[in-house]
Every structure is written in C-alpha cells, then in structure tokens.
Design brief:
Layout (H helix, E strand, L loop, with lengths): L1 H78 L2 H13 L6 H4 L7 H18 L2 E4 L2 E4 L7 E11 L5 E10 L5 E6 L6 E3 L2 H4 L3 H5 L4 H12 L3 E4 L2 H8 L8 E3 L4 H5 L8 H9 L10 H14 L1 H19 L1
Helix pairs in contact: 10-11
Length: 323
C-alpha cells in the first residue's frame, strides 16, 4: 500500500514538472510574438513619418510655385487699368476728406503726398526732441497723448514646427494724430525657429532685452480699454496678444467694404491701400510696426466720416428691427 502511494506521488510530481515547463515555454513564446509585433509597429510609424516629411517638402515647393504664379498675375493686374478705374469709383463713393485732423487745419496743404511728407518730418523732429516718462510701468511720450481712437500693429516671429506658428515680438500703438504712444519688444516665451528678420525686422537681441509678455499684455489692455481700436487684420494681432476687444469698437481696414472693392472683394494688403489711397510706399524691406500703425490710422482718417456714418445707420436700422 505504501509503495502504491509513493508511485502515485512520484507520477504527480512528474506531471506538475511537465505542466510548469509547458507554462514557461508558452509564456516565452507569447513574449517573443509581442516583441516582434511592437518592433514592426515602430518600423511602420517611422516609415509613415518619413513619408509625411516628404509630403511637407513637396507641399512647400508647390506653395512657392503658387506664390510665383500669384506674383505674375499681380504684375499683370498692375500693368492694366483695372486698379486705376476701381480707385476712381471708390473715391467717388467714399469722398475722402484728407489725413490727420492736425494736418487738415493747415490750408496750404493741397495733396495727400504733401500731408504725408509733413507728417513724417514732424514725427522725425518729435522723435529727436521727445523725452520719456514712465507712467504706470508704461512708456509714453510727453507730446503723445491717448485719444479716443488708437491704431495698433504687431510684429511676430515663427515658433513650433518649421516656424509656422506665430509669437508676439513687438507691439506698437499710435494715437489719432500719428504720435507713437507705446512701442515695446517682447521677450520670447518659446524657442524661436524663424525670426523673419527680412520682413519683421526682429533680431535675437531685440527679444533678449524685451519686456515680459505678461507686462506688455496688461499695459496694452489698459490702453485699449474703452477706446476704438484701428488696425489692419486685427484678428491676428489680438490673437498673439491673447486679448479680445468689443466688435463695436473695432475699425479693421482689411474688412472695410469700399477698400475690399478695390481688390474685387478679396482682402487688400496694407501696402496696397497705402500706395493706392495715400500715395506712399511702406513695408519696403523690413517692416516697422510704428510705420504700419501710422499708415492704418491715416487710412481710417481719410474715410472716418463715411465709415462712422455707415455704422450709425446700421445701428439705427437694427434698433428699429428690435423694436
């Protein structure tokens, strides 16, 4: 009897040993299969990323080619009489009345070009003689003063993948008379991939010595509070500042219908409007946010009466409709 029990226990031990070995080799095979699957997934992801990079490079080449076609079409348009004819129609409809109010007081200025030259000369003299005070951590010229209407323009640098995203680098504000009331560079909050110096005029040293973004954001918000903001494509500027402004207090020259008619309904550039309406050349080479802000304020002043009259008429109709 004892011999039988011993034999049975021996057989059980052998069976347990075989089961344990079977489990061990099964787990080993499963781990090997998982390793192979993970390796193949990683290789497929690397191949897909390589294909995406090639597609991006091809897309950039196509974009450059399309831009070249657009430039060629633009030269053909300038050589035709379409722009001149459109300009005459817009001038008849809007009745431009001049540039800054300060310039309109002088009776001896007969043309827009003369007005602009005098404005630029005055700004140069003012820049050479002005002294600066610090008021509420904000740099304001003694001669410059805050007015109901304020024009703003921002310069940006490229961040993110291939520098395609925008980050604020400089912000400038001028009052209704074209006096610069605020102009500051902003420190970089992320790694800059493209300074866009040939267009923005921004260099690495400008951002190193710039102001903190939170300070600039707060100061600009204080200036804009309760005032009418004038600009060109203001959505982009407000986005990089992470600010909003009431729609009724925005005057965006890129959305003004008489200006858009000059480009047959498409968005006109600030350079185009300055050349066609004011007769001046801006943005030649590196841009200046102060110069752009002055130009956009001057554009607004030329059509201010018609623009404000149109807005007041729309508000009257909307009130009647609500009643």
């Amino acid at each position: 009897m004892q011999t039988l029990i011993g034999d049975i226990s021996y057989i059980l031990l052998i069976l347990v040993d075989y089961l344990l070995r079977l489990i061990y080799w099964t787990l080993k095979c499963v781990l090997y299969v998982l390793k192979v699957i993970i390796h193949q997934c990683l290789e497929s992801n690397m191949i897909q990323n390589t294909k995406k990079q090639k597609r991006v490079q091809n897309g950039e080449a196509e974009t450059v080619a399309i831009r070249g076609m657009i430039d060629a079409n633009w030269r053909k348009l300038l050589s035709s009489n379409l722009v001149d004819n459109t300009k005459e129609v817009i001038q008849k409809e809007t009745h431009y009345t001049g540039t800054f109010r300060r310039a309109r007081k002088k009776n001896n200025m007969d043309s827009v070009n003369t007005n602009l030259e005098s404005m630029q000369l005055n700004s140069i003299l003012a820049d050479s003689n002005k002294t600066k005070d610090t008021i509420n951590n904000r740099t304001v010229n003694k001669k410059g003063s805050l007015t109901k209407f304020v024009a703003m323009d921002c310069e940006m640098v490229g961040i993110g993948y291939n520098g395609e995203d925008h980050m604020l680098a400089r912000v400038s504000l001028v009052n209704k008379f074209g006096d610069c009331i605020y102009d500051k560079y902003v420190k970089a909050r992320e790694e800059v991939k493209d300074y866009r110096t040939e267009v923005s005029g921004i260099r690495r040293e400008n951002l190193i010595t710039g102001e903190e973004f939170s300070v600039v954001q707060k100061e600009v918000a204080e200036i804009l509070r309760g005032r009418i903001l004038v600009g060109h494509s203001l959505k982009n500027d407000l986005n990089v500042l992470f600010l909003s402004h009431p729609k009724t207090k925005i005057r965006d020259t890129s959305k003004y219908k008489p200006f858009r008619k000059m480009k047959k309904g498409s968005t006109p550039s600030l350079k185009f409007l300055a050349k066609e309406i004011l007769g001046i050349d801006i943005q030649r080479g590196e841009h200046s946010s102060v110069e752009d802000a002055r130009a956009v304020m001057q554009l607004y002043c030329t059509v201010a009466k018609t623009w404000e009259m149109t807005l007041s008429t729309k508000r009257t109709y909307s009130k009647k409709a609500d009643d």
